[in-house]
Amino acid sequence: MPIHVVILAAGQGKRMMSDLPKVAHMAAGRTLIGWVLEAVRPLRPASTVVVVGHGAEQVVSHLPPDVVPALQEEQLGTGHATRVGLDALGDVAPEDTIVVLYGDMPLLTNELLARLADRSDDVAARMVTSVFEDPTGYGRVIRDGGVVVEVVEERDSDDDQRAIGEINAGAYAFRAKDLIAALGGLSNDNSQGEYYLTDVVGILVGRGERLEPVETTPEEVIGINSQDQLTEARHLLQARTNQRLMESGVWMLDPDRTYVDDTVTVEPGAKIYPGVHLEGNTTVAAGAQVGPDVFAVDSSIGGGATVWYAVLRNAVVGEGCEVGPYASLRPGTVLEKGAKVGTFVETKNTTLGEGAKAPHLAYLGDATVGARSNIGAGSITCNYDGYEKHQTIIGDDVFIGSDTMLVAPLTIGDNAVTGAGSVITDDVEEGALALERTEQRDFPGYSQRRAERQAAKETED
Ligand code: UD1
Ligand code: CA
Questions:
Q1: 3-class DSSP state for residue 231?
Q2: Atom of ligand 1 nearest to the CA of 80
Q3: Inter-residue contact 419 to 435 (CB < 8 Å)
Q4: Hey, what domains does the chain have and what are their CATH numbers?
Q5: Which atom of ligand 1 is found nearest the CA of 197?
Q6: b/e burial code for range 89-126 (CB count within 10 A of at least 16 → b)
Q7: Taking 90 as the threshold, does the pLDDT of residue 103 lie above it?
Q8: pLDDT at residue 1 in the model
């Protein structure tokens, strides 16, 4: 039976106290709506519609191309939103399955959705329920003789109903014809003046249809309405990702202090120390050691590399490279095999060839450094003249002496050497020594004379 999915995401999420539409908030590497769509994907739906309203453009920008947005101009309730979603679904046969989910439930799993969408026993609908220690804010599931008969929203409930711990999670699977018929019968005669999707439950039961609850743990169905719930969800999602990585063979010293986006790839055999944040499409190869304290976004770390106390943005760290402690690799940095970027070194738009080294205190911007070349401490590429950026090309096996200023544009030939403290403004040919500094002059007996002058001054006073 074809499955269609409608995800409701038109609400503003007032309780988030944020300008961002609720479902566009990020948690552990995906937006809330992104997590729901991930959980849905294995159902292989014939069509998926996301109902948008508040911040529609922002929400739509996070949707993959095969998901259809439907605009709910006015937020008249979850029942109304479902109707808007159905209209956008296109061809739906009466016996098809329609899964309706809320966009603020990032912890939904595919296993739960597979149980929900199972239509083997021909019920009119299934709905996810869970027993909460503190059910405050949720719709309560009313049973009669064990059979689900109704959902009552907290605001419309009486004291007895509020004491019920079983809540409506907000995930449903309907036989299409039954959902369509029941939506037609909704009224907005309730405390919020809204068309509640939850009233469909009572309507179907009233028509003598069977409705099966699908029970699950509270953790899987928490709905995000506030920043503290977002943080709780982030924590749980991160724990899941870390668990998956460890099961695959990734070593983690302290998963509670390891923050890896779901979009990141970490190969088995990599070692992750605490304080590591890996974001975007970052990859870490087997045998790499990352951390403590690394922030890497959209970067790749090669096999056997060591990266610690470092920030990497759009950087490529090759096999066996060493980065840090205290290094900043900015966009366009490429370290080839075995290269080293050490303490207090910043690179930008720069390639270090195989085995090249900048071990301490350097800035390399818009530069190419050849294989095995060494950049001495305190050296920098003066790549910016106040108007434009210029390139520095350094050949293979070059030795840049400590505290060399390389004033770009500049080309240094293979095997060349620059003397410490030189300001190099002209190209240096292959194999040459370039030296730019005044000659040293010594003044013998200086310290003695100075001490005598000082002593004389003190007797005068
Ligand atoms: C809803 C349920 C409640 C359930 C809870 C689970 C209803 C009436 N109540 O309450 O039984 O326990 O979720 O978290 O369904 N939305 C729209 N258009 C609208 C209104 C809402 O798209 O006009 C979307 C929201 O963006 C949100 C979802 O529907 O993603 C749920 O709305 P929300 O206001 O969060 O419902 P709750 O009060 O939490
Ligand atoms: Ca909610």
A1: helix
A2: 23
A3: yes
A4: 3-221 (3.90.550.10), 251-434 (2.160.10.10)
A5: 15
A6: beebeeebbbbbbbbbbbbbbeebbeebbebeeebbbb
A7: yes
A8: 84
Binding site membership of 103 for ligand 1 (Cβ less than 6 Å): yes
Ligand 1 pocket test: pick from 102, 128, 155, 198 the residue with the most ligand atoms within 8 Å of its Cβ. Answer: 102
Tokens of 142: 């009313």
Partners of residue 277 on adjacent β-strands: 259, 295
From ligand 2's centre to the CA of 22, what distance in Å? 10
Cα angle for residues 377, 339, 403 (degrees, 5° grid) = 15
**What separation in angstroms does the CA of 365 have from each of 119, 159, 191, 203, 416?**
61, 68, 63, 68, 20
Let me know: does 379 contact 406? Beta carbons within 8 Å: yes
Lowest mean pLDDT across 10-19, 165-174, 236-245, 396-405: 10-19
pLDDT, tens digit, for every residue of 252-298? Answer: 999 999 999 999 999 999 999 999 999 999 999 999 999 999 999 99
Q: Whose CA is nearest to atom 14 of ligand 1?
A: 223
Half-sphere exposure of 316 toward its Cβ, with a 13 Å CA cutoff?
Answer: 12
Q: What would the 3-class secondary structure string for 164-198 be?
A: CCEEEEEEEEEEHHHHHHHHHCCCCCCCCCCCCCC
The Cα 419–Cα 401 span in angstroms is 5
**Ligand 1 pocket, 291 CB below 6 A?**
no
Q: Are 321 and 359 in contact (CB under 8 A)?
A: no
**Ligand 1 pocket, 153 CB below 6 A?**
yes
DSSP readout, 283-314? EE-TT-EE-SSEEEES-EE-TT-EE-SEEEES
3-state SS class at 360: strand
Calculated CA dihedral for residues 266, 313, 276, 238, nearest 10 degrees: -60
Closest atom of ligand 1 relative to the 11 alpha carbon: 26
Burial label for 357, CB within 10 Å (0-12, 13-18, 19+), is: buried
Instruction: Assess whether the C-beta atom of 108 lies below 6 angstroms from ligand 1.
Output: no
Residue 161 Cα to ligand 1 midpoint, Å, equals: 19
Residue 55 CB–ligand 1 contact under 6 Å: no
Q: What is the pLDDT of residue 223?
A: 92
| Residue of 25, 54, 80, 360 marked active site | 360
308 lines ligand 1 (CB under 6 A): no
**How remote is the CA of residue 181 from the centroid of ligand 2, in Å?**
25
Catalytic residue at 360? yes
Q: What is the phi/psi pair of residue 189, to 5°? A: -85, 75
Give Cα separations from 432 to 152, 191, 426, 442 (angstroms).
85, 86, 12, 27
pTM: 0.92
